[in-house]
Amino acid sequence: MEAQVKRFSFTQPKMGSPFTIIVYANDSTRAAFLAEQSFQLVDSLVNIFSDYIDSSELNRLCAAAGTDKKPMVISPALFEILILSKYAYEKSGGTFDITLGPVTRLWRKARKENVFPSKNMVKEKLSLTGFQKLRLNHEASTAHLTQKGMQLDLGGIAQGYIAQKVIDFLKQNKISNALVDVSGDIVAVGAPPGRQGWTVGVNAPGDMKELLNKTLLIRDKAVTTSGDIYQYMYHQRKKYSHIVDPKTGYGITSQRNVTIIAADGTKADWLTKACSLLPISKAKKLATELNAALLIIELKNGKKIWHSTANFASYWKNPEP
């Protein structure tokens, strides 16, 4: 007689946030083993992608920027995420740009010290950006940054990528019902037993505790919500988001919560950032082109204005008739 399938939940701090893995399995020992293997996979990818860890592969690549050293041979994981980032840059019309590292580091420091940077400082850091300065060679698996002082920032894509890799690992190990949640980047496969899908809440704009009164129902999908709830700074009565506009070097001031539902975590992650910057009509067009569903809730004069692609309504747990 087969053991009953049970729900197991595991959480560890990763990338500055709780990283939660929920699996349905009939063996607690195996569930715990797979969760531990998953967390080790997360650690290995963080040690490649993080710009907070001096010895990370990403930071070693950036340290060689603008030098006459040979292009650096990089790991398959770093090469893959750089290729995906290039695709995202091209598809988003340049609104998603991982070369913004010098600018995002400047704003990270500004938020921490609560000191608004000068125009000259922003301009100086912006001059160190530009995707055309990142050279990738498929045949040799090499990467090279052509300007000294360049810094890549994978913060808008790595969480979704890592969450997807964990789900892929669990699927390879015959786990057919699981969910990964890393700081709001959610990737799910299957559904809890006896249910149609996983129930996911969406943050209301401007409030880190309040959720919308409607919930999503997802199966074999990724969902990510991005906004300025946690990371922002005020200057002269304006609220600047941590999401930086690559054209200006400043955080966006329009208050939007952007939710994307997509086939994989990587796409859901970067699309939320791109759709935070794009005009709403272009954001909807891009999401539709990439077979994703988009919800944007804007805060204007204290009022919530909703915008969504036509396919988003089908994901509400109790869709309106």
Provide an overview of this structure.
By secondary structure, this protein is an alpha+beta fold. The protein has helices spanning 28-49, 57-63, 76-91, 101-113, 119-126, 158-172, 265-277, 280-289; strands at 6-14, 17-25, 72-73, 134-137, 142-145, 178-182, 185-189, 198-200, 216-218, 222-226, 232-235, 238-241, 255-262, 293-300, 303-308. Helices cover 32% and strands 25% of the residues. It has an 8-stranded antiparallel β-sheet with strand order 1-2-6-7-10-13-14-15, with helices on one face. A hairpin with a 2-residue loop joins strand 11 (232-235) and strand 12. The radius of gyration is 20 Å and the shape is globular. The model has no long low-confidence stretch (mean pLDDT 91).
Strand and helix layout:
Blueprint: E1 6-14, E2 17-25, H1 28-49, H2 57-63, E3 72-73, H3 76-91, H4 101-113, H5 119-126, E4 134-137, E5 142-145, H6 158-172, E6 178-182, E7 185-189, E8 198-200, E9 216-218, E10 222-226, E11 232-235, E12 238-241, E13 255-262, H7 265-277, H8 280-289, E14 293-300, E15 303-308
Helix pairs in contact: 1-6, 6-7, 7-8
